[in-house]
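Section handout 9: paired folding examples.
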Amino acid sequence: MHITRPVFLDLWRIKLPIPAFVSILHRVSGVLMILAIPVAAVLFDRALSGPEGFALAAALFDSWFIKAALALMIWSLLHHLIAGIRFLVLDLGLGLDRPVARATAWTALIAALAALVAVIALGGTFR
């Protein structure tokens, strides 16, 4: 009698294809946006509470840590949008071939990063 044992998968050793990586990042970006909602609500409430609350909320954005978190949230929004459009197109049956799927996955990654750089360059938040 042969007993089958559970197989341990070392997820750090598995080489994922780029479409799988984009899919995972799409889910991570969605979770980041959901987690940002209560933080944004508290900051919004604090900013509307009065001049002192607004000054406190505005002062938070002078920290490099908050600027990095804001850049992460902007990337999260942009990546989720671009990858979501890619997935909608895939759901229509377009771009399912392996080379096209890889190309669109790379395009989604690069477009989200390029859009993040454009937002940072054009916006005054990070100065």
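Moving on to protein 2 of 2.
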Amino acid sequence: MTTIKSREKCVPDAADRLDLPDVGEWKRVSPRYVVVETVGTIVFGLVLAAAAAAVWLLLDVQWALYVIGAVVLITGATVAFEPRRVRAIGYQLRRDDLLFRRGIMFTRFVSVPYGRMQLVDITRGPIARWLGLADLKFVTAAASSGVLIPGLPEADAESLRDRLVELAESRRAGL
């Protein structure tokens, strides 16, 4: 016996959504990280546009003009969404793990137990260093579960690194 669901029932209610208990507050990355992402997007767009322009000028291929236009449009749209995308990045220190989220349309949540962390690393690119920002990367035994928290102020990244190393050592000692 099959039942036909009404149109209203197709919309998921609160019980069907991802339930994350509010253990603490979400911490966001620095708003200055928008500059890092915007500069990277513009540089990448310029490189692609320059390559298409070189094809157009050297080989006299007309479709390269359409590629230049598409690159400019896509780069502009990406730059327009950068502030919202950066605001969607956050992390939460919970009792037994660190919860990381990112994404606007396709939101990704990654939970990394403190006892499984093997490496906590801080990296700084040239633009991020100029803005006083750093990326915090931690790796677990599973290669696919490496998490990168970008755009943290340098002091926050260093204190978070020290705190995570301390938590990881105390949780591993209990194994």
